[in-house]
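Each record in this resource describes a single protein on a pair of labelled lines. An example record follows, reproduced without changes.
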Amino acid sequence: MAMMGINTERALIGRARRGDAIAIEGLIRAHQDALYAFILRMSGRPDVAEDIVQEAFVRVLNNLDRFDDRFRFSTWVFTIAKRLYVNWIQKHRPAYDTETVNARQCHQESPGGVTARREVLGNIRGLIETALAGLNEQQREIILLFHQQSWPITTIAEHLDMPEGTVKSHLHRARKRMKRLITANRKMHEQVQEAWS
């Protein structure tokens, strides 16, 4: 989903601060899917992503009067969710629910005769999940914000409170690491070749 225009966003925030239920719903709807996808990729677990996104929006709504209009609302929401995720990591060891990923792939490759295209897409998803799991937290977050959420480098730098050059460097190293992880695994490498052929 494309980012909401700044004027539209500010108008919704103003109405939401006054308790307008439709505006509150609009703010949540505008950011919920992207936030869920981001936290799901960070954690690898749908249950964790659902809990964190729900808690993030509870905190956002309880603290809406503290939001600084000079910044993007999406950056603020993602920052709150990221802090909640970091807290969750501190309480639990990070676990990638490979059973969920495999179940999705198996569902797509059911004996009922699924197309080869779906199988290839399932393989690509698996490759991405595996390569993302091989990154450190910071690299994974930058990759997801840039490629999945389409955030520009400047917004990521602001969100992570680091220079733009450092973000670019992390992005470059993360891409190289993902490529190495994929090409080092013969089966994964063959799946990539299959996907692009």
User: Anything to note?
Assistant: The two ends are 29 Å apart (CA to CA).
